[in-house]
Amino acid sequence: MSDRPSSVKEQAARMILGEIAPLVDKLDEVATMTSESHEHLADDVRQLAAIVTTLQKSLEAAAEQFGYLTGQARTVQTTIARFESAPQPKQSAAQSPLMLSVLMAGSALVAAVLVAGGVLFFERGTAEQARVGRAVSRAYQHLDEGTRQKLDAAIQKSGG
Question: What is the pTM of this model?
Answer without folding.
Answer: 0.38
